[in-house]
Design goal:
The chain is of the alpha+beta class and about 450 residues long. It is about 35% helix and about 20% strand. The protein folds into 4 domains: about 90 residues, Uridine Diphospho-n-acetylenolpyruvylglucosamine Reductase, domain 2, CATH 3.30.43; about 120 residues, Uridine Diphospho-n-acetylenolpyruvylglucosamine Reductase, domain 3 (2-Layer Sandwich), CATH 3.30.465; about 110 residues, Alpha-Beta Plaits; about 100 residues, Alpha-Beta Plaits, CATH 3.30.70.2740. It has a 7-stranded antiparallel sheet with strand order 15-12-14-13-17-18-16, sandwiched between helices. A 5-stranded antiparallel sheet has the order 5-6-10-8-9. A 4-stranded mixed sheet has the order 1-2-4-3. α1 packs antiparallel against α3, α8 runs antiparallel to α13 and α13 runs antiparallel to α14.
């Protein structure tokens, strides 16, 4: 071990950018999941050449490498489960170019998502993917997990904005996939293959992203329902009426009660569902669609609690949504967080099944999420010290996944597979499909050094 660590120290040449003592290793042993394992060394490269040389040493010595951004993933993707090298990309955090001729940003992987959004806004542009962790998550991590967010209903997820990238593959070569073009069928689409690959196929050192002009206006509405399922059905009604909002966020009755207690809200009595709906576009178009929304909500027995008249009121509405995570954190000490996705019209069905499963296993399951694209976050709140509750939560997760698949859905919409969902992958994919994924992994990484133990 001393020999290969010495080689890496020689590549870095800066003692401030390499950690080997236990006190500095422990913070990099986990992410936002419950998985934990110390790396043997933490390294902070500053350029592609350093990464390439480090990868060559690890490939020769068969040393595991775990790439890492901010470490905010929920499935253990950034946990160095087999030790080895933890490669932190946080020092590669430059916005290299904002190309106004082509509306493309070129960034290093360690750029914080909100930093990019704030920078391009100065030019009247925006980068739509907006994961909840945007203030701390990195673009490299977003691309590795194909992060989504609230704006995915209208604009899509990270994969819809990645045009090209520079990548160090597990044998150490530096390759370019894609580029500053919007059409490209020159060979297999390796750019798309890298998106969502969870750091198992290559280490991104540069990423090219599509940008869009800022919309003229945004209009935001908060709607409350006494019947949770009517709230869920309203999502399909909105789409059927050919309105495509930027976001349609859903909160169940338990979510509402958590926020109500957390923020000391005196209203919302007997409310069992909430939708937060946001439109954007031209002034006249959003006015017209807002009137349509009001009619749809009335038809579905919803109560319009607030329509934002300005940016301050809009922010107040979204602050209510953001309060949910700290609010549910007060219920218990452990959150089993899953991110299932079903066809939009199946949201009422999966909610009904989840609530039944909660009763069956005597568990508190709070549901909220991006209903506009069928992505529901199920949060099983348990006492992690209670082994019986832990066991029941695992049984509940398996049943939730099973019901999701029956409805034509998938076990992960935006969090990835990582370590947490690895045992359930074969429930959702054909055996032959999983074997094909493994063959792709071996083609890129014959010695299985890059983020080993994840997905499969």
């Amino acid at each position: 071990m001393k020999k290969w660590i010495g080689e890496i120290e020689g590549i870095i040449g800066d003692k401030e950018r390499i950690f080997t003592d236990l006190a500095h290793l422990i913070p990099y042993s986990t992410d936002s999941s419950t998985f934990k394992n110390n790396p043997d060394v933490v390294v902070f490269p500053e350029n592609k050449e350093e990464i390439s040389e480090i990868v060559k040493v690890c490939n020769r010595e068969k040393i595991p490498i775990t790439p890492r951004g901010s470490g905010v993933g929920y499935t253990g993707g950034a946990v160095p489960i087999e030790g080895g090298v933890l490669l932190s990309l946080t020092k590669m955090n430059k916005i290299l170019e904002i190309d106004l001729d082509n509306l493309i940003a070129t960034v290093e992987p360690g750029v914080i998502t909100k930093t990019l959004q704030d920078e391009v806004k100065k030019y009247g542009l925006f980068y739509p993917p907006d994961p909840a962790s945007l203030k701390i998550s990195t673009i490299g991590g977003n691309v590795a997990e194909c992060a989504g967010g609230m704006s995915a209903v209208k604009y899509g997820v990270t994969k819809h904005f990645v045009l090209g990238m520079e990548v160090v593959i597990p044998t150490g070569e530096i390759l370019r996939f894609g580029g500053k073009v919007f059409k490209n069928v020159t060979g297999y689409d390796l750019t798309s293959l890298m998106v969502g690959s969870e750091g198992t196929l290559g280490i991104m050192t540069e990423i090219q992203l599509k940008l869009l002009p800022l919309p003229e206006v945004r209009r935001t509405m908060m709607v409350l329902f006494r019947d949770m399922y009517k709230g869920a059905k309203t999502v399909s009604e909105i789409i059927i009426n050919k309105i495509i909002p930027v976001a349609i966020e859903f909160l169940d009755g338990d979510s509402i009660r958590c926020i109500k207690d957390y923020k000391n809200i005196n209203s919302w009595e007997d409310m069992d569902g909430m939708l937060i709906i946001e439109l954007d576009g031209k002034e006249e178009d959003t006015k017209r669609d807002m009137k349509k929304l009001e009619k749809i909500v009335k038809k579905m027995d919803g109560k319009i609690f607030k329509v934002a008249e300005n940016e301050e009121e809009r922010e107040e509405i979204w602050e209510t949504r953001r309060a949910l995570s700290p609010a549910i954190g007060k219920i218990n000490n452990t959150k089993v967080n899953e991110d299932i996705v079903v066809p939009r019209n199946k949201i009422p069905d999966i909610l009904h099944k989840i609530k039944e499963i909660g009763k069956k296993y005597n568990l508190n399951i709070i549901c909220f999420g991006h209903a506009g694209d069928g992505n529901i976050h199920t949060n099983i709140m348990i006492d992690g010290r209670n082994l019986d509750e832990v066991k029941r939560s695992k049984m509940a997760v398996k049943e939730i996944f099973s019901e999701t698949i029956k409805l034509g859905g998938f076990i992960s919409g935006e969090h990835g597979i990582g370590l947490a969902k690895k045992p359930y992958l074969k429930m959702n994919l054909q055996k032959e499909t999983v074997e094909l994924l493994k063959r792709i992994k071996r083609a890129f990484d014959p010695n299985n050094i890059l983020n080993p133990g994840k997905i499969f």
